[in-house]
């Protein structure tokens, strides 16, 4: 009687740095003010929204192109201050670096990495 031996082969899939995630993404649309300098060298402030966000970065929609590796500041709009003190008056700005960008029609999808992960 001849016995066959099946040897399972281990497959290793390499994942590049751009595809490796350090934090789980939430597919959440959050309005944000984005401030910085665009690809044409013009200073701007735009109201944008996230397509997804994590503790380490976000994917945003903007009507203008940005420079790859450029720095932007993100600020989440907050409601008017309440007398109860339960709602914070504001949130600290978030510094981020542009790591990728894609043009879709007249909208630019911008991937940013936060300088410091969110708490």
What is the secondary structure topology, with strand pairs?
Elements: E1 31-37, E2 43-53, E3 57-62, E4 71-75, E5 94-104, E6 107-114
Antiparallel strand pairs: 1-2, 1-4, 2-3, 3-6, 4-5, 5-6
Tell me what you see in this structure:
With 119 residues, the protein is an all-beta fold. The chain has a domain of 77 residues: Thrombin, subunit H (Beta Barrel). The chain has no helices and six strands. A six-stranded antiparallel β-barrel has the order 1-2-3-6-5-4. 14% of the residues are buried. The N terminus is likely disordered.
Which short descriptors sum up this protein?
mainly beta; disordered N terminus; single chain; Thrombin, subunit H; 0% helix; six-stranded antiparallel beta barrel; 119 residues
Overall pLDDT, averaged?
A: 82
Distance between the termini: 64 Å
The general outline is: globular
Fraction of helical residues: under 10%
**Can you write the helix and strand succession as a string?**
EEEEEE
**Sheet having the most strands:** 6 strands, antiparallel, barrel
Biggest sheet strand line-up: 1-2-3-6-5-4
- Tally the helices: 0
How large is the share of residues in beta strands?
A: 35-45%
Work out the radius of gyration: 21 Å
| Helix-strand makeup class | mainly beta
